[in-house]
Amino acid sequence: MKADKLYVNGYIFTVDKEQEWAEAVAVQGNKIIYVGDRAGADAFCDDKTEIRDLGTKMMLPGFIDGHCHPVMAAHVLSQIVFDIDWTLDECLMQIKRYVEEHPESSSYFGLGYAEWLFDEKGPRKELLDNICPDKPMFFLGSGGHEAWANSKCFEEAGITSDTPDPLPGLHYFSRDEEGNPAGHVVEGRSQAMIMTKIDFFDAESVVNIMAENSADYASMGVTGTADMGMYAYLEKQYYEALDAVRSSGRYLQRFVGCTCHVEDQNLVDLRIEALIKAREKYNDDRFRMNFLKIINDGTMESRSAAISEPYPEDGSVVKPLMNEEQAAKAGLKAAKAGLDVNMHAIGDVAAKSVIAMAKAIRQAGYDDCRITCSHSQYIAPEDIPLFGKYNIIANSTGVWMYGNPLMDKVLGHINNETFRMRSLIDSGAKMALGSDFPVDEYGREPLRSIQMCATRKMYGQPDAPVLEPADEVTTVREAIEGFTINNAYQMHMEDVIGSIEVGKYADFVILEENILDIPPERIYEVKVCETIMDGVTTYSA
Questions:
Q1: pLDDT tens for each residue of 355-403
Q2: Using only C-alpha atoms, what is the Rg of the chain?
Q3: Where is the Amidohydrolase domain (predicted)?
């Protein structure tokens, strides 16, 4: 067995606990056939082997984005993309500019305004009516769990004072004094009541954007994506876009997904059936479906996360979609069907449902079911050890780990008790990192998240506030594991990707510097030199 390529020298960090560093890696086709010292590699080489001298560069397993929405992103990024740091006046100015530049559009859509720009009542429709009163306008907030609509949007969707909220207190429309929708649309089932009535997307543009986003991922060193789903009301568009980009060969990452979210506990059985059917078509190491994704609460920014204390601004209390008993039943159904389970849980009450689900699954003997708590933002201190006990994967996003005083008014003391990753890791939990793209806010680049996991402050801003508790930082090594082997484990693919080991796929990222040997504050500046997926270069600087 002779190698097509041999990578030598540099800093080859394998993320394999048995052999963390290597002098040489040999590749034949799309598989790794040797990892070890330079002398041992000679047996795998002949005169046709291409020798790649890494010099002083660093080679790692390819990064895996463990929580993203690449199909959804291609839809919601197709028009206006807000900057998270824009003021309200800047948002309105950019909306006005876009409308003036696109008079031919029959509707306007966008993503990304900072949800903390508004009070607990959320954005108001009148601000948009002043810009465009005669065409529907619908903009998702930075977390994707709330939206801002104008009067025409509600009119065309048939949302009036007589329209009941789909799930009062969690999926709802903010109302004015007369009971009419005021402009603030909270959570997916409310959004669905508008987006199933108004078509905001162009299919060809969506496929092109998905391919472009994939190429951008490759430039960031990403070779795998865990797709955490699409709104159920766009299921048809989801498959159309995925099939088109798959057949074109323009998707440059491995794709493991869940099709659509569960946002209605009465639809668990239907979603499981849909996943089993999808798995018949998507079940190889390039495209696979195996997650049941449950959206159990909202976000703190939109005041829809299920936390154990009333929100300071108005004393409101939010309950999760599924209580502990309901979550346990749903999780057991998924485990029995051979699926892995991923539950969105921002607040500590929602996280308790994840724990109850995991306990039921483990006690039933489904030890190999991968259970992920998406985001793991605020977990009650007494619940943290249970993540290790029940083998719950703690998913999170590094670029969210920064001090944000603007959230003090929304959360009070809770604002400085979030993302306890150090404690979760010490409890025995695996930390899996992702971007939540397209609601990543400060970039989906893994290197930025790795840095912010290890510093708990905004990259590129030396004087930025640290997210307390400051001692909840991770090591850089742990953050690398969070973007490689732990995400591979979450995707049920740790036997073939996630580390540089013989028999695994040749998925690598080559960096210009050894990020384990520089100050963590510099990691975001390190350039990606090359990305290899399945033995093929997908990006080269």
A1: 999 999 999 999 999 999 999 999 999 999 999 999 999 999 999 999 9
A2: 23
A3: 51-539
The DSSP symbol for 407 reads G
Burial of 265 (0-12, 13-18, 19+ CB in 10 A): middle
Residue 222's Cβ-count burial label (10 Å; 0-12, 13-18, 19+) is buried
Residue 116 pLDDT > 90: no
Task: Read off the pLDDT band of 439 (50, 70, 90).
Answer: confident
As its CATH architecture, domain 79-195 has Roll (3.10)
Cis omega (within 30 of 0) on the bond before 469?
Answer: yes
Strand 222-227 relative to strand 254-257: parallel, antiparallel, unpaired?
A: parallel
Going by C-beta distance under 8 Å and a sequence separation of 6 or more, which residues neighbour residue 97?
Answer: none
438 prior amide bond cis, ω within 30:
yes
Looking at 3.30.430.20, 2.30.40.10, 3.30.300.30, 1.10.260.40, the CATH number of the domain 5-62+504-540 comes to: 2.30.40.10
Question: What pLDDT is attached to residue 384?
Answer: 98
Paired sense of beta strands 5-13 and 50-53, if any: parallel
Does this chain's domain 5-62+504-540 share its CATH topology with 79-195? no
Name the residue with higher pLDDT: 517 or 314: 517
- Domains in the chain: boundaries: 5-62+504-540, 79-195, 260-490
pLDDT tens digits, residue range 247-303?
A: 999 999 999 999 999 988 999 999 999 999 999 999 999 999 999 999 999 999 888
Q: How would you class 286 by CB atoms within 10 Å of its CB: exposed for 0-12, middle for 13-18, buried for 19 or more?
A: middle
Q: With left for phi above 0 and alpha for psi between -120 and 50, is residue 523 left, alpha or beta?
A: alpha
DSSP letter at 51 equals E
Continuous H helices in 282-420: 324-336, 348-363, 384-389, 408-411
Query: What are the Cα distances from residue 345, in Å, to 143, 269, 348, 370?
Result: 13, 21, 8, 16
pLDDT in tens, 289-326: 999 999 999 999 888 999 999 999 889 999 999 999 99
**For residues 361 and 368, is the Cβ–Cβ distance under 8 A?**
no
So what's the pLDDT on residue 87? 95
pLDDT at 276: 96
Q: Give the span between the Cα atoms of 93 and 252, in whole angstroms.
A: 36
Residue 12 to residue 473: CA distance in whole angstroms? 25
Q: Residue 74 and residue 246: Cα distance in Å, rounded?
A: 14
**CATH class belonging to 260-490:** alpha beta
And the tokens for 118? 């508004």
Rounded-to-integer distance, Cα 146 and Cα 119, Å: 13
Residue type, 304: S
| Per-residue confidence (pLDDT) for residue 69, from 0 to 100 | 95
Beta-carbon count within 10 A of 305 CB: 30
Exposure of 386 by Cβ count < 10 A (0-12 exposed, 13-18 middle, 19+ buried)?
A: buried
The band of 219, judged by pLDDT with boundaries at 50, 70 and 90, is: very high
